[in-house]
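writing this on my phone so excuse typos. first protein, seq and then structure
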Amino acid sequence: MTIDSFVLAGKSYQSRLLVGTGKYKDFEQTREAIVESGAEIVTVAIRRTNIGQDANEASLLDYVSPKEFTYLPNTAGCFSAADAVRTARLARELLDGHQLVKLEIFGSPTNLYPNMPETLAATKELVADGFDVMVYCSDDPVQAKMLEDMGCVAVMPLASIIGSGMGILNPWNIRLILDQISVPVLLDAGVGTASDAAIGMELGCDAVLMNSALAYANDPIRMARAMRRAVQAGRDAYLAGRMPKKHYLAEASSPTTGLIHTSAAPAAK
């Protein structure tokens, strides 16, 4: 069977599930959930997670090695282009020249919705500085196309508000984005359970990213396993091509030709 991989910033990955490293009870649980998810790419909030900034605290690097997983540092917690660019450059320094970064700029600390004007400004600067930029963005197909044209390696429209678990609130916009851009589209934010991930993949998304859905589950390890299976099932369903929806069957599901019939109609009772 042909391996169904996807390419991100020139590197091929077999897992289409990306997972975060925050919000777990400890680094041991973080690692266990990541391994169970089958993810190859892990996101790291540089402003919240120790990867060497504090030598006196436990480091994620000791539990989730960059030699084993691709690190995707993100700028979560930033509210301006200037802060995001500075954070991305810090990540590059801490990770020995690592160029891949997930850009996140929030408009409000209460809902974490993306601030798109600041996001576009930061994208322009980071791309010019040689970063491979993946962008957390609104589900606006016009702005998604703008991000592709600016040189992003992937766009990551939200399914719903970060941490809400509300699932995909506007599948039509996600479909519009998928129809008009050629870089990978990763569903980001708002996934709550396995069916949300499967629907995202059935729409045609290249991958799904999540953190809260795993870390806040009653059993994060079991949920990680469920998400791995859901992403694969959704991808298989997308590739298989679903049957069209109908209000009723236009024809019988079983053929009627070639069946044995009596020559005379049954007598009336």
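second protein below, same order as before
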Amino acid sequence: MCASYKPYVDPDAVRQTKEAVSKQPELGNVAFSMKGKSAGGIAVRMETGALVQNGVADNSRAGKFSLTGDEPVALLGTDTGVSPAEYLLMGLAGCYTVTLTTLAAAKGIELDSIDLELFFDINLNGFLGLDDSVRKGAQGIRVDVHLESTGATREQLEELVRELPANSPIHDTLANPVDITTRLA
């Protein structure tokens, strides 16, 4: 793998960010936003919106990235994009990569690679209303983490993986109740 693909974050930048938020806790208040529009059938087209930090909007990301969500044909879609479950796994994988890279940097561990395999297990009998005893969402999410580091022991890498649940914001969001407000605008 090319060296430019190695997971890396500047440990000094992590320290400086922590210090800045420690001195001004309101800097820790961040809101990500997305805008979505039906794209035909059950598909949706999404674009990134403004990033708001401490009440101040940064519009430089608005419309910068777009995503299409759909379902496979077997699940009533037209397979024009990644499924919502796959996007959820992408969010968790992205957060795990950020978290692992940041934790490793703080511990002075240089990672050579991070490879993740994620699985979203769902029983459609719940979603389809065929069995009220089955939840509509995931029955479970499984993640296999493969880390490589020429300078770290297996024990150090295992410790990084054990620390993921306590440090990943997306893991925390999925594992714990969070208020979701949905309304007709």
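The mean pLDDT is 96. thats all i got for now
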